[in-house]
Amino acid sequence: MTTNEDHPSAAPPPVAGVTTTVGPAPVIEPQERVGRGFLTLFGFLNFGLYLTVMMPALFSLPYRVQTLDPDGKALSLGIVATVGAVVSLVAGPAAGVLSDRTRSRWGRRRPWLLGGIVVAIVGSIMVALAPNLILLVLGWVVVCMGGAGAAAAITPIVAERVPEQQRGTVGAIVGVATQLAGVLGYTLGGMLTGSLVVLFLVPWALLAVLAVVWSLAIKEHPVAIPLTTLVQTFRLMVFNPRKHPDFGLVWLGKLFMQIALAFLTTYQLYFLGDRLGFTPEEAGQRLALVGGIGILVTMTFAVVSGMLSDKLRRRKVFILASTVLAAIGLALMGFADGFGLFVAAVMFILGAAGMFGSVDVAMASDLVPEREQAGRWMTIYNLAATLPSAIAPLLGSALLAIGSASGTNYTALFLAGAVIALGTGVVTFFIRGVR
Length: 435
Prior knowledge:
Elements: H1 36-68, H2 73-100, H3 110-129, H4 133-154, H5 157-161, H6 167-191, H7 196-217, H8 230-235, H9 245-274, H10 280-312, H11 316-335, H12 339-366, H13 374-386, H14 388-400, H15 410-429
Helix pairs in contact: 1-4, 1-6, 1-7, 1-9, 2-4, 2-13, 2-14, 3-4, 3-7, 6-10, 6-12, 9-10, 9-12, 9-13, 9-14, 9-15, 10-12, 11-12, 11-15, 14-15
């Protein structure tokens, strides 16, 4: 977030041969309820998207880094993840703003969805075949650029197409899809270590199939938005939190929660090996088991919280409750010395993630300042999920090194995560635009 002004002082110049509007389109709040077919396909689409995110975050990328640098894996993983996150920080907002203004016979979202997947597939092959960390980083950069394009086509859908009274329900569906993706990521990761190419290609291949089905089944609603220059595009990537304080607080709260959760997702594979003594393959199997049990917890918290937040028209109380659950789980993780306590800690964290994920996206959608530019605003919102992938590995490697020559101080790591999670509750308390 910056204190720059939100819009250029003048409308973008017209492009030869292209008809554009003179000013911004009117703000249109979605009114028509979406049906079961839309909800089902959107759930599957998000499942595919989050599988491409969760599988590398939870298993495949840490596993690949460990095969190239087993002794310095924590620091190397931090470097790879941070470089990818920095690329996403630029590519994500740019794709969101440009997709808002794309003109094509396929619509404005489909080219970014399908094109992004193709780019990410190329990068995934590069990562799988990389003989050293330098080429792995290069491949991961390509993956992140492709992923930014695909995400820019999916993240605005709730704000653009779903009315306020259904957003909590849709958020619950997204929360469940996310956790399902995490469980399947563990399971596939443990099964596919024999082929690195297959390990990295499977999630993108699945998303490609789901994206084609979505593109054929769901029509886009055209919205007239002026074309923009490259300079204006980058100006639209920032916003003034003093002008939109509630949206700024939602953004900051998500950032805190995602950093806290990223401590677990980034390092749990190494935690099971360093502290509990499992091999990577055994850890993958154990994580799949935990995820299978935890999905019931996540689904319950996500669905119940999302539906109740719609019915009660309250969002903040669920966010506050999720921060407490996350802090408890992370604190337990800091002292876990056996698999049983590890499972208990994860259950608290998964419950918190389900509750937070379903309600926070609904709250952000409620507070989007300009509905006709939902791609821009929801992509900015999504940066709060991207930044932690840069912050958490570097901060985490520093916390792991406290008083430990081997870089295995997981107690410091997870206790810090608990404090950061509580920070989400603090900033949420000051939001005024929703109850």
